[in-house]
Specification:
heterodimer, A: mainly alpha, 74% helix, B: mainly alpha, 75% helix, globular
């Protein structure tokens, strides 16, 4: 929600600023997948209804693009601090306590989840790579492991944005 | 009660209590499932219990995550979100407001009717309640205040109309529900048409009658122009483009010409063209819409990530059976149990958004509803008619919940765009009649399930 607060002077912690910049930069590139997705869908619609047959590749490309968007978004939304919170009580807490609960959540809830999914996804991708998995459809896209690889990559980006946030919260709390 | 049942209850309780720390819902879900997997594993090892949970259980959630990525139905989600965001910026709402005001301004309460109508037309807009309430509030509150409308009527109308979007197609909530319950998106979209129309009629009827009985709440605009052909032509011109767009999107799905995914892509392009035609589209707007679409999609799917993990652990513990047992064990009969479920959803709506409820609660209670044995005629065309009907009931209950003080979502979003002299209590007073209208609507749909089922049955039959 508050895009700019992360980079104002009061909250500035150098290492976090560069990490956040990295995440935002990647996000601002990946976000265009939605634009490309519109284009691909329209192309498919024209081919299918105008020329009588669509292409399997375009069909698969659609969910590949969508998958990129949804997975890379998690870290972007983390840096933007826009993940949905239940703020009935949260909104009434002092900033200090909000920060403390956030730090607690990061270490006890979020990081364990991120680390475990990251670790488990490595096997998942390796297995796909080992058998050189490709689309079931003969005309489909090859290299299924590449899109599966999005899981560990996006989770490590999520990890980076989480750690950046934790450092920032920690500094803010120390400063009082 | 067995050990697993206690674990299930503990899991729900820790989830709910951790939510109130304000930590993002998605990650609370993920974190709680990780912890309970370890609790289950260690109690299997050291206390001879049989939870069957271990590290591999969590590994299965990676497969599930990939199922979301490799999901052709959900591709429609970012596209509909894009379409909504683009429509919001396309200047269409302002145009509609300006032209319709001239027509409806002829009668008392006309401005409020305009707001409801725009709410219905732009319900396509998002289904993200915050966005519709904020848009309607910014657009119409100053105008209504200037014309001397009573605060409560103005505020109630905006909050009520803003929540219509989660029900009226193409609602992204219905896309997700279809995916979760294995229903057809087309059936749900069609099924939502009559419930949406009924609520719209109830709203507009109430506004007109109320203004007739108490004329002082809605003074007429002193500078209103007499109705002439030019005004009607203006309205026609301003309503045609968005109506065509929505007609094209829904019509092509309903007619079975395109899949919802394809229609969503066409809708996204259409909204962009509308913005371009209104000279509202430039690079800055496009970048903003892209960012906002990316971000909105991301926080919705983050909840998919957490909820998948949560559901997986809950299911291994037999949580779904526990819920089914306790609900079907209630001594109320099918309709009684249905009301208990709707009541629970209503209460959950106070602190959870529809996204969480759809992803966590709905899959758990859908089998219960199927087993209650409601005899609803699907005319041999609609699969699982009782679930289609049930989804509409849930949608209307959620809408009502978002309107209900003290903590309905719509109320806070509205407060956020109100001038400071408007107090939260004014909003509370304003929404009361609309909550009653919602309950009437809900009762109508409960009594006549065919209002939901008939349209998809006829269309696809």
């Amino acid at each position: 929600m508050n895009t700019e607060t992360n980079t104002n002077n009061e909250n500035s912690v150098k290492i976090c600023d560069s990490l956040d910049k990295l995440i935002m930069g990647i996000g601002h590139v990946v976000m265009w997948t939605n634009g490309v997705l519109i284009f691909v869908i329209i192309l498919q619609v024209i081919l299918r209804y105008g020329f009588g047959h669509g292409l399997v590749i375009l069909e698969e490309l659609q969910w590949h693009l969508y998958a990129l968007g949804i997975m890379f978004g998690a870290s972007y939304a983390m840096t933007m601090d826009s993940h949905i919170r239940v703020d009935i009580i949260h909104a009434r807490l002092s900033t200090k306590w909000q920060n403390r609960w956030d730090l607690f959540g990061i270490f006890f809830l979020l990081l364990p989840f991120v680390i475990i999914i990251f670790h488990q996804s490595l096997d998942f991708v390796y297995e796909s790579w080992r058998v050189n998995e490709r689309s079931d459809a003969p005309m489909g896209l090859p290299f299924r492991w590449l899109i599966k690889g999005v899981i560990p990559v996006s989770f490590s980006l999520l990890g980076i944005s989480v750690i950046s946030r934790a450092i920032r919260l920690f500094y803010n709390l120390r400063r009082g | 009660m067995e050990f697993n049942d206690y674990l299930v209850i503990a899991m729900f309780l820790s989830f709910i209590s951790l939510l109130f720390t304000g930590f993002p819902v998605a990650w609370v879900l993920g974190g709680v499932s990780v912890w309970f997997t370890f609790v289950g594993y260690f109690s299997d090892v050291y206390f001879d219990t049989w939870t069957g949970l271990d590290y591999l259980t969590l590994g299965m959630s990676v497969n599930r995550i990939f199922k979301f990525m490799d999901n052709w139905v959900l591709v429609a989600l970012p596209m509909f979100i894009f379409m909504g965001l683009m429509l919001d910026r396309s200047g269409i709402a302002e145009k509609l407001m300006k032209s319709m005001q001239n027509l409806f301004g002829q009668v008392r309460g006309g401005l409020a009717v305009t707001v409801t109508t725009i709410g219905i037309i732009l319900a396509a807009s998002t289904g993200i309640i915050g966005a519709s309430v904020v848009l309607l509030g910014l657009l119409s509150l100053p105008a209504m205040m200037k014309q001397g409308y009573s605060k409560t009527l103005a505020l109630g109308t905006i909050a009520g109309s803003g929540t219509l979007g989660i029900l009226i197609p193409p609602s992204i909530m219905l896309v997700i529900m279809a995916d979760q319950l294995g229903l057809s998106v087309g059936d749900l979209f069609m099924g939502a048409v009559f419930p949406g129309v009924i609520l719209g009629i109830l709203y507009i009827g109430y506004i007109l009658i109320f203004c007739l009985v108490k004329p002082e709440v809605a003074p007429l605009d002193p500078d209103r122009k007499p109705l002439n052909i030019k005004i009607l032509w203006d309205i026609f011109k301003s309503i045609l483009p968005p109506a065509l767009l929505i007609f094209a999107v829904l019509g092509s799905i309903f007619a079975g010409i395109t899949t919802p995914t394809e229609a969503s892509g066409v809708g996204a392009l259409g909204a962009t063209i509308l913005a371009l035609a209104n000279k509202k589209l430039n690079l800055k707007v496009l970048v903003e819409v892209m960012k906002s679409c990316f971000n909105t999609t991301a926080y919705i799917f983050a909840i998919f990530l957490g909820a998948t993990c949560f559901a997986l652990v809950l299911r291994s513990l037999g949580g779904d059976e526990l819920i089914e047992r306790s609900l079907t064990g209630l001594p109320f009969g099918p309709y009684g149990i249905m009301l208990v479920i709707l009541g629970a959803v209503f209460l959950l709506g106070f602190f959870l958004d529809w996204i969480e409820i759809t992803l966590i609660v709905l899959p758990l209670i859908a089998p219960v509803v199927s087993s209650l044995g409601f005899e609803i005629d699907g005319h041999g065309v609609v699969d699982n008619p009782e679930l289609v009907w049930f989804v509409m009931l849930i949608a209307v209950s959620l809408q009502t919940s978002f309107l209900t003080p003290p903590v309905g979502f719509a109320l806070f979003y509205l407060k956020g765009v109100c001038p400071p002299e408007i107090k939260l209590t004014d909003i509370y007073k304003g929404v009361v009649p609309f909550i009653i209208l919602q309950l009437i609507g809900l009762a109508i749909i409960i009594m006549w399930p065919q209002l939901v089922i008939w349209l998809p049955a006829v269309a696809y039959g």
